[in-house]
Amino acid sequence: MMDRRAFFAGAAATALVPFAVTQPAMAGKLPQDGAEWFTNVEVKTHDGQTLRFYDDVMKGKILLINFFFTSCDNVCPLMTENLARVQELLGARVGQDIRMVSISLQPEHDTPEVMAAYAKGYGVGPGWLFLTGRKDDIELLRHRLGFVDSNPVTDADPEQHIGTVRIANEPMHRWAMSPALLNPPALIRAIKRVLPEFS
Amino acid sequence: MTSWKDKVALTAQRNRQEIVKAKLSRREMMRLGLLTAGGSLIVKAGLSSRAFGQPTAASLADPDTTLSRMPASPPIKPFVQQMPRLTLKKPIKSNQMTAGLPDPITGKALLLPCDGTTPIDGATKRIDHQYYKHNPNVEGAFIDKFGETKFYELEMKEAHIKLHPDYGASKVWGFDGQVPGPLFRAKYGEPAMVRFKNHLPSVRIPQAFGIAEMTTHLHNGHTPSESDGNPVNYFNSVNDPNAVNPLGFKDQHYPNVKAGYTKRGDLSGDPTEALGSLWYHDHHLDFTAQNVYKGMFGCYNLFDELDTGDGTGLRLPHDDFDVPIMFNDFLFDQDCQTVFDLFNLDGILGDRFAANGAIQPKLEVEKRRYRFRLYAPGPSRWWEFALWDGTNYLPFWQISSDGNLLPNAIQVTSTRIAVAERTDIIVDFSKIKARRIYLVNRLEQVNGRGPTGRILNPGQPIIQINLTLPLSSTDDSADPSAGQAGIVGMPLRPLPDPDWKALQAKAAKLPTRTWRFERGSGGWMVNGKFFDENVVSAAIPQESEEVWVIQNPGGSWRHPVHIHFEEHRVLSRNGVPVKPNTQINASVDYARKDVIELNTNEEVRIFMRFRDMKGRYVMHCHNVVHEDHAMMIRWDIV
Fold first, then answer.
1. pLDDT recorded at residue A149
2. What DSSP designation does A124 have?
3. Which residues of B, range 281-310, sit inside 8 Å of A by Cβ?
4. CB B149 within 8 A of CB B133
5. Cβ-based neighbour number of residue B414 at 10 Å
6. Which of the residues A32, B86, B569, B634 could staple to B183 if both were Cys, CB 3.0 to 4.6 A apart?
């Protein structure tokens, strides 16, 4: 197995240098952009902050967004651990222009304290936010971010919404999706696909 | 006693350590019992769906259909503009090929003939073309295994096009700035080297959707892997000069050779394997739907000694009377810009219908026979075309399935194509009494998951056809009825395996692979797995034959499944063998095909060959929204 440090140096550090968007935000108004689509519903983070979802969490960032819940014993741990390795590989960029976001599908149970303990167990570093909030608000976010199934029975099962990560280059309005369990180097490649500006 | 917080943290930490120990490889996860053999995760402690409850917020829009949550397109008056004919692509000399941006002083671009190499893997590597060799001692000299190469350049660029006179200009991306891109009329025995020049805006310029890196697939050419438009072979624009491929181009070699030449040893291939109506489109990993919807598609027709394109051979209608039509559905915002729903994984539909880039056009025709090549570039809409005179549906002749000539013309009154399928038809306007008829789409589709199956009456009119033009010349084309009554018409191209029983018997003994196209874990999967470009799901020996079983366990969606590289034969659907000279759901299965209409709860068995070349290829759902959400596998010929 490749040494993490070596991988980081080879694939991430040289390729994923921070970039500045050279153009202003989209001139025209897009139907799926900004606070109007992603909403500014109030979310609470695992470290006790209260944030507006679009303005404080999303705006201007490269984002990895997934859904999870702490009581999901077998599936979520694999994904959270996988994403923890992605965070290690991305290094200091998480917390700068890259932000990782995990939103609880069980917000009534996953209080900031519960999520803080969960994050601690995975050695989650800065720049990765675990979010909870009012149940209706979280449902709205889930729909707006496309973590939905057209079959209502399937849609009601939270296990169906935790297999994928949305990867977004928010200022460029560029969105893609990756399996949450893709091996970390492949997931890094998927992140690079939404930000070719690194070159 | 430890606090509950410590317990949560400890449990999480223990989970993590176990996973770290297992290094998270698939094999290890399976050993741990965390993954099933099919690749999906074992769910043990999930919440029951009942306990979680239903979405309650009244503000939640219908999740599955774009049209219900986006404003409708601005209104138009239909049938006021002519349907455009596609621009014919002309070859250039090899020493006229250019690369990069024009020099700011001279205004001239750098002259740069093919050097026999092409970039792959996000343009990070450069490899040799397999069958086109450069002579390093003589500039511009080359050896093509398959004949004398023709050279073309296609410039991918942004353009502003009015799709309707009532609309303002829409920003599109197109090959040569056209939507659809220009028409290639290529010939077997004349290989083509096409230089794709990416002159799209820099990736640093924000876009509503789409990404300005491109990899073009010629659907369904018998193409060497490095020129196949593999999803990972995208390359950057010339407007990103600091990117890995600063001159922003990629040469793709199309041998225009029929499959089966290796065994025949003749370098021309099996004449019964000729393709006819092909098309080309972007295939960028994760971004195919967005880029195709942005306009990155065009037409490529292939001719040979039977389907000659000049009135000889089978004497099919030719030149001005051989008309490819690409059908799209778009959704526009109030500024007439196309809207792409980025958060709809089922597929996206539009409410405006375009033919060759014009919304609901009219077409003036002579009272003679025409060949129409009908294309469905997607992203997600299926079509069932019929000719309606205001009272009746008029008969016409279907002569191809997926653009490949059938053994015989078949008289039909409608023809269905899923995304990426093609059908060629011959309409004899001399036998139609009405002065005005409509090409209508009779297939109801209300969301991206596929058509409902309901047949509309009369259907959505797409093109108004006026039988008004005077006859410009005598119609020298053959009458598809061949002077006979009945629905089976003139013979066209025999099938490679004309003995149906022998083929079925052979297939029963062949190695079989099963591919299940299914929904899972929030995306679209094949055999319980999401696409990973480094995972080879099937390594197939060259020159081998196999039976593939394509399954759809889903009851509410359909998948147009596309396999690159070679045409297949459908053996059976749900165990029922297909029949010659018949339609199933208005489609002809008894043919050579490259797209499988995989309907709900269906299992389709197909016969496959893997001949002549080696390398990596893909199979994927051609509802390209499904493809982008990982419904794809890589298979290699080894």
1. 86
2. -
3. 285-287
4. no
5. 24
6. B86
**Quick one: tokens of B186?**
């290529």
| Chain B residue numbers touching A74 (CB-CB < 8 A) | 34, 41-45
Confidence of residue A25 (pLDDT cuts 50, 70, 90): very low
Using a CB-CB cut-off of 8 Å, the residues of chain A touching B244 are 199
How would DSSP label each residue in B441-467? EEE---STT---SPEEEEEEEEEEEEE
Give the burial class of B635: count Cβ atoms within 10 A of its Cβ; 0-12 exposed, 13-18 middle, 19 or more buried: buried
Task: Return the C-alpha torsion angle B356, B357, B360, B364, nearest 10.
Answer: -40
Provide the residue ranges of all domains of chain B, joining segments of one domain with +.
4-51, 94-316, 323-491, 500-637
pLDDT of the residue at A16: 42
Are residues B592 and B402 in contact, defined by beta-carbon separation less than 8 angstroms? Answer: yes
pLDDT in tens, B408-452: 999 999 999 999 999 999 999 999 999 999 999 999 999 999 999
Residue A131, token pair as written in the block: 């979010």
Touching A: B residues 428-447, CB under 8 Å: 447
Q: Which of B514, B528, B500, B529 is nearest to B605 (CA)?
A: B514
Distance CA B72, CA B62 (A): 15
Write down the CATH number for the domain with range B500-637: 2.60.40.420
CATH of domain B94-316: 2.60.40.420
Q: How many residues does chain B have?
A: 638
The pLDDT score that the predictor gives to residue B33 is 36
Q: Per the structure block, which two tokens stand in for B557?
A: 């969606």
Rounded CA gap, B498 and B90, in Å? 37
**Please, how many CA atoms are within 13 Å of residue B339, restricted to the half-sphere of its CB?**
27
pLDDT the model gives residue B134: 78
Give B-chain residues touching A113 at CB under 8 angstroms.
5
Q: What is the pLDDT of residues A110-166, one digit of tens each?
A: 999 999 999 999 999 999 999 999 999 999 999 999 998 888 888 888 888 988 999
Please tell me the distance from the alpha carbon of residue A112 to that of residue A129, in angstroms, as a whole number.
11
Measure B460 CA to nearest chain A CA, in Å: 26
Mean pLDDT of chain A: 85
**Residue B617, SS3 per DSSP:** strand
Domain range list for chain A:
39-198
Q: Which residues of A touch B338 (CB under 8 A)?
A: none
In chain B, which residues have pLDDT < 50? 1, 23-64
Spatial contact of B403 and B506, defined as CB atoms under 8 Å apart: no
- pLDDT at residue B32, as a whole number: 37
- Which of B7, B14, B15 to substitute to test the interface with A, most A CBs within 10 Å? B15
Instruction: List C-alpha distances in Å: B117 to A14, B132, B147, B614.
Output: 26, 9, 18, 17
Q: Of B43, B342, B534, which has the smallest distance from its Cβ to A32's Cβ?
A: B342
Q: What is the rounded CA–CA span in Å between residue B632 and residue B620? A: 4
Which B residues 223-242 touch A at CB under 8 Å? 236, 240, 242
CB contacts < 8 A (A, B): 227
> Is the CATH number of domain A39-198 2.40.30.110?
no
Q: Chain B: give the shortest CA distance to residue A116, in Å.
A: 8
Candidate from A30, A78, A174 with C-beta closest to B34: A78
Q: ipTM of the assembly?
A: 0.86
Average pLDDT over residues A61-78: 91
Q: Does domain B323-491 have CATH number 2.60.40.420?
A: yes
Q: How far apart are CA B585 and CA B397, in angstroms?
A: 16
Give the per-residue pLDDT at B31. 35
Answer whether B323-491 and B500-637 agree in fold. Answer: yes
Alpha helices (H) in chain A, listed in sequence order: 4-7, 34-38, 75-90, 112-121, 135-144, 152-155, 184-194
